[in-house]
Design goal:
With about 650 residues, this protein is of the alpha/beta class. The structure holds beta-D-galactopyranose (GAL).
Length: about 650
């Protein structure tokens, strides 16, 4: 590990059967040995609690600990992440093993952090979970009348007449499906808190994380509230086409996810807890990472706010489902491999970056991503069921900024907006209570909001607003949505800028999938539809509200629209760019800054050489320590990191003049 420039290890994930081979018989000798050797080598330990996979003896002695599927069947004890979050037996067994770990290792010198469980995910439908859900509903609604009103459950005669009748098998009641996911999030947060009790007690100084794998099961913003540090496992599909010349599409999606993890704790740095040093083995085809890609993708994480680059796994196991998953060390246990050399080189670069730890990504733009909204959109049955694409829509609103080296925080709808100049609100179909007021206050004070089609349809229990869309946002946006057209796959309608509009728009654009027919109630139309019976009706509007502006994008537009409109808006708002001017295709630029230093990351996701010019400012190359040349060349999949004293910080800020 020292030879690979690895200074921190994660130990104990899924190690329960090795720690407690039989109920009540514990074996810590091997872990003591790991701690001793780590201490001697100056390596820090991130110690995991083992609850992500349970031993066979436990599953067989106490069947209640096994998860029950939606089909009512109990897991026969296969794979992992298959425990019930409610089971008192499981919770007590977890508390016991966690207590022993915390007592034994909580004060050991190499311990850097607790890593609770592994990638919490999934739902359990056992009787214990159902009972807990019913109690949770009772606490939330108080009476069945309130629950029935909130769920509109008289529809199809689904009125609930006893709490015990509430089951989650019925996806026709959308509020119920949402509450189930909220409950499972709450149950997971509660389980996580319970796991942490002994860790906090016996090891109060040690920070706690749990590795997220941000998928749709829980509201990860809620889980993040429980832990000290956010960490994430990143497995992008690099080189899906190994002959491809540009990995920008994957890079953008990965960047979005990094920014989401940074947004989980108000912009605080996170940890890249897992990535593969070479291949994965669970997609249909997983090409090797091409030379340079390990360094590039690792530094991408750091550029977006990660304070670490950790790999899964140190060495390939000889058997089991992950024996062909990439590792720092192969089955053949030596260091003479390309992967090992590349890992060592990344470590060597990171060793030159001690000042990056804690450094922030300065973002003046935020994009609201909301899990409850994702669930609501997924569950909804609307005229457009085929192309809902909430995540893709968020990404398409993030892209124009990412391409320009403009930092965007991906934030929850519960976030504080006052530090931003721009808040993007793509497809916020479910409008959380109070958000319209908070966005209005933000705009009134001079902020800019851009909301899109499919925003403001339902409240938190998935009931439609009686005012129609965009619900409580209509005053801020100065519009009402009268109808929306849903277009099938290949249909397009043109969007035409109005003559006097400006706003960076030129020529006709194409809209697809969603087209709102909007009535302006105070807003001004900047573009209109060019075809169909709604030709001439507004496709893009702006409303002045207090000292700020609120835009409404009424249709799902093509990439050129996204680029023109949002690129212009970014310039007009003088959002800080990492580098002035346009970046070459495939190249991105990012800034992190601490009180004393700025770091500029230049990343080339294209398989061709590129060059960018640096603004003046005392830049030096992190790897060589030499002053940086004014024109920086980036090789294919190349990455450079430059640093400058914070005194020069202003040189890269606000360089883009407002575009008339
Ligand atoms: C992660 C998981 C690891 C390993 C890895 C393989 O999701 O936490 O244990 O399975 O995937 O890519």
């Amino acid at each position: 590990m020292r030879a690979a420039n690895i200074n921190t290890i994660t130990v104990g994930v899924f190690a329960w059967a090795a720690l407690e081979p039989e109920e009540g018989r514990f074996e810590f000798g091997w872990l003591d040995d790991v701690f001793e050797r780590a201490e001697k080598s100056g390596i820090r330990v991130i110690l995991a609690t083992p609850s992500g996979g349970k031993p066979n003896w436990l599953a067989h002695a106490y069947p209640e600990v096994r998860r029950v599927g939606e089909n009512g069947r109990r897991d026969p004890q296969q794979w992992r992440h298959n425990h019930c979050l409610t089971s008192p037996v499981y919770r007590s067994k977890v508390r016991e093993i966690n207590t022993r770990l915390a007592q034994r290792y909580g004060a050991r010198q190499p311990l850097a952090m607790w890593h609770v469980s592994n990638e919490y995910l999934g739902y359990c439908y056992c009787d214990l979970c159902m009972g807990a859900f019913q109690s949770w509903l009772r606490a939330r609604y108080g009476t069945l009348d309130r629950l029935n009103d909130a769920y509109w459950s008289r529809f199809w005669s689904h009125t609930f007449t006893a709490w015990e009748e509430v089951q989650v098998i019925d996806s026709s009641i959308h509020g119920l499906s949402l509450d189930w996911k909220r409950f499972m999030t709450a149950q997971c947060a509660d389980f996580l808190r319970a796991e942490m009790v002994p860790l906090r007690k016996h090891s109060p100084e040690t920070p706690v994380t749990t590795n997220f794998h941000t998928i749709e099961h829980y509201d990860y913003f809620r889980l993040a509230e429980e832990i000290d540090v956010v960490s994430w496992d990143s497995y992008p599909d690099w080189h899906a086409d190994p002959d491809g010349l540009d990995e920008s599409a994957v890079a953008a999606e990965t960047a979005f996810r990094f920014d989401l993890n940074r947004g989980m704790k108000g912009g605080k740095p996170f940890l890249l807890m897992e990535c593969t040093p070479s291949q994965i083995n669970w997609r249909d085809v997983s090409p090797l990472r091409r030379p340079g890609m390990l360094r590039l993708s690792s530094l991408q994480a750091v550029a977006h706010g990660s304070d670490a680059v950790c790999y899964f796994q140190i060495r390939k196991g000889l058997g089991g489902a992950e024996k062909f998953h990439g590792a720092v060390i192969d089955h053949a246990g030596h260091a003479q491999t390309r992967t090992f050399r590349e890992v060592a080189a990344v470590g060597a670069t990171l060793e030159k970056l001690p000042g990056i730890v804690g450094a922030r990504v300065p973002a003046k733009a935020a994009l609201i991503f909301d899990w409850e909204n994702l669930w609501a959109i997924d569950g909804a049955r609307t005229p457009q069921n085929k192309h809902k694409e909430y995540r893709e829509t968020c990404l398409s609103h993030y892209l124009p900024f990412w391409k320009r080296g403009i930092a965007v925080d991906i934030v929850s709808s519960r976030s504080e907006f006052s530090s931003y100049d721009l808040v993007l609100v793509p497809m916020l179909y479910l409008l959380p209570e109070g958000l319209a007021e908070r966005l209005s206050a933000f705009v009134a004070k001079g902020g800019t909001v851009v909301a899109t089609y499919q925003t403001g349809y339902v409240n938190e229990t998935d009931l439609c607003f009686q005012t129609g869309a965009p619900g409580p946002l209509s005053e801020l946006l100065g519009i009402r949505v009268e109808e929306f057209d849903a277009l099938p796959d290949s249909s397009r309608r043109s969007v035409i800028p109005r003559d006097s509009a400006g706003h960076g728009l030129s020529g006709d654009y194409e809209a697809r999938h969603f087209l709102d027919i909007v009535r302006c109630e105070g807003a001004e139309a900047l573009a209109e539809y060019g075809g169909d019976f709604y030709a001439g009706s507004p496709a893009l509007t702006v409303n002045s509200f207090g000292s700020g502006r609120a835009y409404y994008v009424a249709s799902r537009n093509d990439e050129r629209f996204q680029d023109d409109f949002f690129g212009h808006l970014a310039g007009r708002l003088r959002l800080p760019q990492a580098l002035p001017g346009p970046l070459p295709p495939g190249v991105t630029a990012h800034i992190r800054e601490s009180g004393s230093e700025r770091f500029l990351f230049l990343l080339n996701f294209a398989r061709r050489e590129s060059a960018v010019s640096l603004p003046p400012g005392g830049w030096s190359d992190v790897d060589t320590g030499e002053p940086a040349e004014p024109d920086i060349r980036l090789g294919a999949f190349g990455a450079r990191i430059l640093r400058s004293p914070a005194a020069h910080a202003q040189h890269t800020k606000n360089l883009e003049a407002p575009n008339p």
